[in-house]
Amino acid sequence: MSRAVRPRAARKSPEERAAEIRAGAHDVALEGGLWAVTLRSVAARVGVTPALVAHYQPNMEVLVADTFTAVVAAEMAEVAGIIEPYSSPTDRLAALIHTLVETGRDDVTAVWLDGWSLGRRSAPLATAVRGQMDAWQHLVLGVVEAGCSTGEFTASDPQTVAWHLLGMVDGLSAQGLVSYRDPAARGRLITDALEHALGLPAGALASPESAPAPTPAPAP
Amino acid sequence: MSRAVRPRAARKSPEERAAEIRAGAHDVALEGGLWAVTLRSVAARVGVTPALVAHYQPNMEVLVADTFTAVVAAEMAEVAGIIEPYSSPTDRLAALIHTLVETGRDDVTAVWLDGWSLGRRSAPLATAVRGQMDAWQHLVLGVVEAGCSTGEFTASDPQTVAWHLLGMVDGLSAQGLVSYRDPAARGRLITDALEHALGLPAGALASPESAPAPTPAPAP
DNA sequence: CTTGCTATTGATCGTGCGATCAATAAGATT
DNA sequence: AATCTTATTGATCGCACGATCAATAGCAAG
């Protein structure tokens, strides 16, 4: 099989090595949750000694917190990219819900759960978690407010609606980790509730047509 | 301070000792979450050797799963007892939401989070978690259906409403663990959403009068 | 008082954790 | 080619985990 002994790691610039370690921690977190992010697991993933990982980090508490932020921020950027092509706030919201709830994202959900759980005992992590929750709130709020501007949505308090959506997504995603009900049912529950909250006709937030409205790409 | 050496534990009947261990695990879980439920921590809590705890359990996986069930079932029984005295479904629902979200239950919330998280890797725990989720669904569904019967609530699908409520409670409680917003705001978000979903007038689910309608106790 | 049953213990094994530090060797500089 | 800088390592510490097992000691029955 694979060789039992690890060759000495190539010498790299501190910046490059630090980036590798961050990436390794990222991967480990997606595979095993934040609890799995340990000196040894990250070192093995990067192909390096645990001592080197320790050398690049003040302590594991901050590596875990930073990794949480990286994982969640990356996911948010990805989702933002997915919904961006849709032209109307309604379609964007539908795509957002569909993406979040119905396209297996258990790995990121597990990271969120660990963040809330571990955050009780790690101040840096708790701060990171609150920061990402605010970022998500900001993203969703933008869509809701846009819909209110165009008149598509009817909501007296967009802030509350955004929070409502995220609260349900968080709760139902957590439930999904132990296979409670199926993704489609979870999606329907959320779309129904949101259509209600936004004064939309039933079905308005059902899965958007798979091909997003094409945004003509500017010539490079 | 306290003596450094532990006296030999008194000899007890297996049933009694097993009950002590269950109780010890229960306490440990409430204090530190399911991750803290370990051979050594439970043994220390009970005042006994780790080996004895191991002796009474097939392995830690099942003790953790059983402890989860015990903690959550106890909480549900407590909540059921709190809302029972209220006479109308509306008051019962208001009391339920108020109790769940606005009276610090971070300890039990942490146990839920650990259940979802650890449940990914422990089959017995995952089963236990699903079982308790069903139990909660049953409790809430009873209240919602009662309200529909009396005509207080207008809901086409009580199942969905119950799930909606629990999904939000789970999500917002998790958020609360890292001090995201305050309990009152979380409660308001839920009551507003549910009043909407149940066709209730605004404010109908606001915190019930603190003194529940007295149920005449039967003479013993 | 002696005997038998068994609840309880102490010792121990192997694993994985975070962390530290002197020693090493790869690459850049001269 | 010799020298310097520093990225990387190996060794090690102390701790906590789950698990196992022969030895011990408390209690009840005889």
UniProtKB/TrEMBL annotation, chains A, B:
Keywords: DNA-binding. PANTHER family: HTH-TYPE TRANSCRIPTIONAL REGULATOR RUTR, HTH-TYPE TRANSCRIPTIONAL REPRESSOR BDCR. Signal peptide: none annotated. The keyword DNA-binding applies. InterPro entries: BetI_C, Homeodomain-like_sf, HTH-type_TetR-like_transc_reg, Tet_transcr_reg_TetR-rel_C_sf. The keyword Mitochondrion does not apply. Residues 89-195 form the BetI-type transcriptional repressor C-terminal domain. This is TetR family transcriptional regulator C-terminal domain-containing protein.
